[in-house]
Amino acid sequence: MEEFRKQYKEKHPNNKSVSVVGKAGGDKWKSLSEAEKAPYVAKAEKRKTEYNKTLQAYNKKLAEGANAADEEESDKSRSEVNDDDEDDDESGEEDEDDE
């Protein structure tokens, strides 16, 4: 499709519509034989394999990071809750002493 876009733009320099280029590309693709499509299909399969590997690595990294973040948040929230409770008790005791 990259090659087709370049050729199409050279032949039709005044056309700025993306949809027209897409439709022309689709028509060109449909007119190709299976043998002519083969290199593009192979290239697409290779890119898809690379994409899936990258996606799996990303998801694994994201899951590991999320687990670590959850643990940090739960520890942090526990200490904050405990700290807040202690602060409230201390301030309440001080108010009682002042009265």
Quick gist of this model?
With 99 residues, this protein is mainly α. The chain is 90% helix and 0% strand. It folds into two domains: 1-31, no CATH class; 45-99.
Q: How would you characterize the overall build of this protein?
A:
With 99 residues, the chain is mainly alpha-helical. Helix content is 90%, strand content 0%. The termini are far apart. The relative contact order is 0.04. The model has no long low-confidence stretch (mean pLDDT 80).
* Low confidence ranges: none
Largest sheet: none
Query: How many helices in DSSP terms?
Result: 3
Q: Based on DSSP secondary structure assignment, what is the total number of beta strands?
A: 0
- Radius of gyration computed on alpha carbons: 31 Å
Q: How would you state the average pLDDT, rounded?
A: 80
H-E order? HHH
Structure class: mainly alpha
Shape label: elongated
Termini separation: 82 Å
Count of the domains: 2
What percent of the residues sit in helical stretches (DSSP H or I)?
over 70%
Sheet-strand content, in percent, reads under 5%
Biased composition (Acidic residues): 82-99
Biased composition (Basic and acidic residues): 1-13, 25-51
Region (Disordered): 1-99
DNA-binding region: 1-59
